[in-house]
Please model this.
Amino acid sequence: MITKPNILLVDDDELYLYIMEKTIHQLSKDLVVSTFTDGEQAVEYISKCTEEKVDLPEVIFLDINMPFLDGWGFLNEFKKLKDKIQNDVNIYMVSSSMRDSDIKRASDFEDLTGYVIKPVNKVQLAEIFTKIYHENW
Amino acid sequence: MWKRILKMFIGLYLPLVALSLYVFASQKTKQINTLSEFQKRDVEIKKKYFLEQCNALLADTHYWANLEYPVNFDPIGKHTAFMDRYIELIKEITDYDQFRFIDLKGQELYRAVRNNADSITIGNLQNKENQQYVKEGLALNKDQLYLSQISLNREHGIIEKPNKPVIRAVAPIYDTTETRIGLVVINFKMKRVLDQLKSKVADTELYLLDENHRLISSSLHEEDLPYETGRVDNIFPNKLITSIKGITKDSTIIDDDHIWRMQPVILNGTKNSFGSISKPPSEIITPSNWYMIIEIPPRLLKKYLEPLYDSLITFNVIAIVGLLALCYVFQKKKTQKELFYKELESKNIMLTRNSDLLEENNVMVNEMNNSLEIRNKQLSDFNYLISHNLRSPVTSMSVIVDMIQKEKNPEILNQLLPKLDQIAKSITHLTEDINDYVSILDNQEVKIEDIDLKKLILEVKNEFTETLLDDTGFEVLINLDTWDHISYSKFYMQSIVHNFISNSIKYKRDNVASYIEFKSAIENKHKVLYVRDNGIGLNMERHGDNVFKLYKRFHRNISGKGMGLFLVKSQLDALNATITINSKEGVGTTFKLIF
Model:
């Protein structure tokens, strides 16, 4: 049985994961954070959730550049699984890339909620959480 | 230019000159014929006149021959009364120079000699038995008349002065008993007749000849019978002389601009009754026939033909000038046209050459553009590498440092500090990778040389002997039949081959005889190298876009930095080569390198 986290962090930079986790916990002790270091693991996790009919986390922070399966690859796989997903999932692309090509490519994916540039600070996170959970976090 | 003008001119002028000459010749013949026709009429008139004169004097003679003379006729003795009836008549006829009766022995019976227009002298009888005309006269029959040659009168064998051309008519006379008693001999003065013949209507010359070609009278000589005074001029062409004999009809001879018209005057053997019906006609005997010749001399011919010559020359001069002008204008225009076309052609050639040059430049610019684009992309990739991969550890570091500053809990601080070390390490790795990459980008240092690919692959293969030792077997197959030499950077090629072999070993399948094959080929005039292995392969659908990107790894259980194929592509891009991949999971991977 998988326990459902609130937030999924997908990034190959472990230091980033550590910092994000810490930052989220500083904002709220209630939010459950899960992390994966590449897209492939994240896709495996999501397909497992759909098989076991477990709700997906409400928020996914997705890095672009990752080994094995990158952010774009994840989004393609996510699209295939989308029919089986029951709850709303907000996916934020998180990248240190400010390249126009990346931002434009991101806007082509309907499943993306937003594009955030690293480093993500507390204020940005608070805004995102407010938007999703309203005042309930 | 002038040569061509002349050529064209001759081509046009020759037929024209031939035509003009033909017309001229036919006109000339026509003119000559006309002249000859005039001449014929002229000579006929003269001949008729001459014959009339001769017949007139023959008629006189015939008259005297038919008188009935007394028996024993003695005109100056007992028969003076008989003669008195006729003396006035003899005196009246001024053409009579001498009037004589001669007996059968050649002795003159009567002699009347003209002194001037109205006086004659009678008497002074001579013996003429040796004279040719007497002999001829005595030989005549009753009905015959004799007409002598025209000759100068001689007295006692000496030519009488002034020259007096005379002709003698002789006939036998009979007395009342029909007995022949002698001859009547009349000397006719011919000067009037000959002068009449010589009188000119046109500028022609007239000649009267006897059968021996002796000139009796000619318009060229004032004095008649020039041969008798010793003057002999050979004024007739031989052709004329030889053709005279036997001529009975008029004929024309054209010779050296002369036109000769000949008319025979034949009295010998002709018969004439002189108007008498009761008496039989008399036969006329002459020692020679005459020939009347009218000559159209060159000067007259020339005068007639002059306008013809003039028009021929005028026509030709106008034709020459006109044709020359025409040819000149035509050839000039032609030359100009040719020049124009020549210029056009040379301009065309220049344009084509320029166009070729332009195209060459275009190709060069395109190539340059291509390489610049590649270079641009490399720089952009480099930029991305820096901005992305360097930025994240640096920002992470700043966050950690911030956290450390705020954190009071020593336990958490102990957790945070090693993170800094981690960041430092990752930055070090990154800078090393960047170094590698920059060395590829900076292809100024790249030395292009001829590479023996087979040798190079074997050398690289040997670097893996250690890793291969504890393996069940990994084969490097080399199939470089199509080409095995290439101009490339040796350092790059070594790195490329190294990465391929390294990857093939890394991602080989278990439980199969693994290999990597290098195979050369030529496609679209480019050298192509296929690198194929039978490794675990790759999900192309998933990873196709990322195969050659930095820090991309596709196999979780196998170590790798995600740098190998990125470097391979960079090293190929740097020298304008391209690489594509085709792979199938569980079957193998094929790379295609196009140089």
Observations:
- Chain A touches chain B through 24 residues (CB under 8 Å).
- The CA atoms of residues 8 and 60 of chain A lie 5 Å apart.
